[in-house]
Design goal:
Elements (H helix, E strand, L loop, with lengths): L1 H10 L5 H25 L5 H28 L4 H12 L3 H13 L6 H26 L7 H13 L2 H15 L5 H28 L6 H26 L3 H11 L6 H8 L4 H26 L1
Helix pairs in contact: 1-9, 2-6, 2-8, 2-9, 3-4, 3-6, 3-10, 3-11, 4-6, 4-10, 4-13, 5-6, 5-9, 5-11, 6-7, 6-8, 6-11, 10-11, 10-13, 11-13, 12-13
């Protein structure tokens, strides 16, 4: 409903494109880092469970990359379209969809805060994996050498506010030193604005994105992302021995729709931007029932 509100506000002209861009910038650079620092720093994370969560999250990602590559090759996709198809199939919108849904899903639940914090800590390495794999699979489309692409990737990661917020939260949690009340309440207040603004921004972005070309492949990538990926994750979670709460957290991340940021990377690296745009648009309505099913089955 909040995503729909963002779409409606943009559709009616209440939110202009420049305003929407500034709100997204505020959320990404200020709101979400404050939220992560506050949430992770406030609890004693279950570090022993972070490894198991990462096995499920990264293992599932590897499996989907392989499946996507096999399907694309079987369909004789050109190199740029193949790399784009694979990226659309595995790269979920963790920042603007995964984080809000995880936090809202656990609001008022009986799950320990440590489990939620463990999931948020596992989120950071997953963001890194998503970015590294994206550059690797798109590399054949880049005119510059691998060194230049790697340097750009490292600059993006080192300056990533989401990873910085996670690091600050971990430092607070590990130190065991409570934050001054004024600082704690400030981080919490700023962080609370991030969740609705992130979802409103997604809705506005969907209004601006058009579904053009390669619709069959876009649908295939979206189905891989929102339907097959959670099923693979559920099987891995069962094999690793995650409990119900941990499984829910992992599957929320895995069921996220395709990340909007992937479109920017595809355009920068001469991929198939029409295919990526289509996959992003289609994956959002498909993700809604998928994520609802995840929450109802494992809650």
């Amino acid at each position: 409903m909040v995503i729909g509100l963002g779409w409606l506000l943009t559709r009616t002209g209440f939110l202009s494109a420049p305003t929407l861009a500034e709100l997204n910038r505020l959320t990404y650079w200020v709101g979400l880092p404050a939220l992560l620092a506050s949430r992770i720093g406030a609890a004693t994370p279950a570090y022993d469970r972070v490894g198991s969560l990462l096995v499920v999250l990264i293992g599932t990602t590897a499996a989907v990359v392989l499946i996507g590559a096999l399907i694309g090759r079987a369909g004789r996709l050109p190199a740029g379209s193949l790399a784009t198809f694979v990226q659309a199939a595995y790269r979920g919108n963790l920042t603007f969809i995964g984080l809000p849904v995880v936090i809202y899903a656990f609001a008022g639940s009986q799950a320990p805060a440590a489990v939620e914090s463990a999931a948020l800590i596992a989120f950071a390495p997953l963001v890194i994996v998503y970015n590294v794999v994206a550059v690797v699979i798109m590399q054949p489309r880049v005119g510059a050498g691998l060194g230049a692409a790697t340097a750009r990737l490292m600059r993006r990661l080192l300056g990533n506010p989401i990873l910085i917020g996670t690091g600050v939260g971990m430092a607070i949690a590990i130190s065991g030193w409570p934050l001054p009340v004024s600082v704690d309440r400030t981080l919490s207040a700023i962080g609370q604005m991030a969740l609705p603004l992130a979802l409103i921004g997604i809705g506005g972005g969907l209004h601006a994105t058009r579904l053009v070309g390669h619709r069959r492949w876009a649908l295939g990538a979206a189905l891989l992302k929102t339907a097959i990926t959670p099923l693979i994750g559920a099987a891995l979670a069962l094999g690793v021995g995650l409990d119900a709460g941990e499984t829910r957290l992992a599957l929320i991340f895995l069921a996220c729709p395709t990340a909007s940021a992937a479109y920017v990377l595809v355009r920068e690296m001469d991929g198939d931007d029409a295919l990526m745009a289509g996959a992003i648009v289609i994956s959002y309505p498909l993700a809604l029932p998928s994520m609802a099913l995840v929450l109802s089955l494992t809650g």
